Amino acid sequence: MGSTYTISVPATSANIGPGFDVMGLSLSLYLHVTAHTSPTATPSPTNITLAYTGSNSSGLPLDPHANLITRTALYVLSCLGHARFPQPMSVHVDNRIPLGRGLGSSGAAVVAGVLLANAVGRLGLSQQRMLDYCLMIEHHPDNVAAALVGGFVASYLVDVDREGAPESETTAAPDTIAEDGHPGVPPENIGHFLRLGCSPKIRAVAIIPQFELATAKARAALPPSYKTSDVVFNLQRLAVLTTALGRETPDPWLIYRAMEDKVHQPYRMHLIPGLPEILATFNPDNTPGLLGICLSGAGPTILALAIDNFDEIAAKIRAVFDRQPDGGVETVYKLLDIVSEGATCIETADEE
Ligand SMILES: Nc1ncnc2c1ncn2[C@@H]1O[C@H](COP(=O)(O)OP(=O)(O)O)[C@@H](O)[C@H]1O
Ligand SMILES: N[C@@H](CCOP(=O)(O)O)C(=O)O
Q1: DSSP 8-state code for residue 207
Q2: Which residues contact 42 (CB under 8 A, 6 or more apart)?
Q3: How does pLDDT run across 85-144, given as a tens digit for each residue?
Q4: Mutate to test the pocket of ligand 2, among 103, 105, 140, 271 (most ligand atoms within 8 A of CB)
Q5: Which of 67, 70, 138, 329 has its CA 20 to 30 A from that of 108?
């Protein structure tokens, strides 16, 4: 008898201002992957037939060795001695997370691939071990940790020099890392995470420009070193932010200031028309309900955390994009919840 595996992975917003490569929030927008065993299908070198539906799939490769989800799954299986899927399977992807917008689409794809391998190969990997595999593909832990465990998550990689973690890449795209070759069996426990409190009153206003910005390009814009005062600026804010979002009644100005950043946003301004004005203009006094505003991940999406007046906040941010030169920047608005559940995988036995 065959089985069906249904995997859901949330989108994530990384950084939340000062927490570059550290913080992630999981959001109510999902990548869904369904895999059916096809016992009567002819075996193939990978045993995978891949198909996509939905709008966020154009241009994505259907070759199992090139596609980020199946490539990740094949990588995990190969580390554990399986050259391919144990039996022929049709894998169907319904992706609601827009690509290259700073909402963690690649992190979600990697997490889905690891969960898929774990399920079809009956590998019995712990959540911690799954994170190790994710980190061999996507070297910054913020998106994958939040997508895997859900909620408001802080994470770190162990020291690369002493404990063998993959070096945090600044220029390589997630896609190029695994295509370069097999990243190798991960060392144990290379990433650690902690779920933090987040008030249920907080919702996420996501303003998504209708252009893609590859994370690799936005990472390449960052400088090789930082001024001590800029690092201290971020550390001060990050320490406050970790607790400020969890208070039952969020303090808007405390959070607003705690979401400022001098480590990545200033260097990415030129890649997102409107970002300087958006960050400089709106605050809790002139925009009631607003708690804080930042670039989501590597951008170009803007993330505003808020407790009220969501549509008004969205309209103000969108108006800035509308006013940009050469006809403005088209945007889509999504009001998202911060979800406490991370990635899930459910197995059901097919009826005979
Ligand atoms: N569902 C998916 N299936 C296959 N590949 C995906 C999927 N989601 C993302 N990717 C890959 O990740 C790339 C986007 O990654 P990235 O530049 O890091 O942006 P994002 O901020 O969306 O994570 C896509 O161009 C694609 O190559
Ligand atoms: N910390 C990373 C986060 C990238 O997130 P994504 O959603 O844009 O892939 C960075 O800022 O580069």
Answers
A1: E
A2: 88
A3: 999 999 999 999 999 999 999 999 999 999 999 999 999 999 999 999 999 999 999 999
A4: 140
A5: 329
For residue 300, whether the previous peptide bond is cis, meaning omega lies within 30 degrees of 0, is yes
Report residue 44 as tokens.
């193939």
Name every protein residue with a CB atom under 6 angstroms from any ligand 2 atom. Answer: 14-15, 20-21, 102-104, 106, 140, 142-143, 215, 218-219, 264, 297-298
> What are the tens digits of pLDDT across the range 28-54?
999 999 999 887 888 999 999 999 998
Give residues (CB < 6 A) around ligand 1. Answer: 31, 60, 67-69, 93, 95, 99-107, 109, 174-175, 214-215, 297-298
Residue 46 burial (10 A CB sphere; 0-12, 13-18, 19+)? buried
ipTM for the whole complex = 0.99
Mutate to test the pocket of ligand 1, among 31, 91, 99 (most ligand atoms within 8 A of CB): 99
What's the CA-to-centroid distance between 318 and ligand 1, angstroms? Answer: 24
Q: How many CB atoms lie within 10 A of CB 312?
A: 14
Q: Which two tokens stand for residue 148?
A: 């895997």
DSSP category for residue 246: T
